[in-house]
């Protein structure tokens, strides 16, 4: 599965020092798209792993913490996450082959968005620590 590479790319995006309000409009849109995809991923993962699984929700929380967006943009990010969650939760209420396939597609979409974001942002200076730990990444099921 693509879970590990997607999580690594999301963390790479969060490791930059640019705040949401300092980003170009296309980067802000990518952040919104990533929030939606994280919401989709959260719903799809919970379908098979149960409602106590908070992996993608915790990544979204971390994203909003690191971005330190102004109140309006923070609300937009959260709304996009919730919209993505609701869309996939309604579409895939049961864990089956279709929901697993949708989870993989969502992972690929998130990976592409995170890669675009990471390519357009400043590189973390040597010696700085990333704001999130790679040790928290869950191995594929």
Descriptive report:
Helix 1 runs parallel beside helix 5 (97-120) and helix 2 (25-49) runs antiparallel to helix 3 (55-67). The chain starts with a helix and ends in a 21-residue tail after the last helix. It is built from 5 helices and no strands. The chain has a domain at 59-116. It has helices at residues 3-14, 25-49, 55-67, 71-91, 97-120. The longest helix is centred in the N-terminal third of the chain and has 25 residues, at 25-49.
Oligomer: single chain
Summarize the amount of helix as a percent range.
55-70%
Q: How do the helices and strands follow one another from N- to C-terminus?
A: HHHHH
Shape: globular
The tally of helices reads: 5
Strand tally, please? Answer: 0
Content-based structural category? mainly alpha
Computed CA radius of gyration, to the nearest angstrom: 15 Å
Low-confidence runs? 122-141
| Integer average pLDDT | 80
Q: How far is the first residue's CA from the last residue's CA?
A: 8 Å
Major sheet characteristics: none
Strand percent estimate: under 5%
List the helices and strands and how they pair.
Blueprint (H helix, E strand, L loop, with lengths): L2 H12 L10 H25 L5 H13 L3 H21 L5 H24 L21
Short characterization:
This protein has helices at residues 3-14, 25-49, 55-67, 71-91, 97-120. Helix content is 67%, strand content 0%.
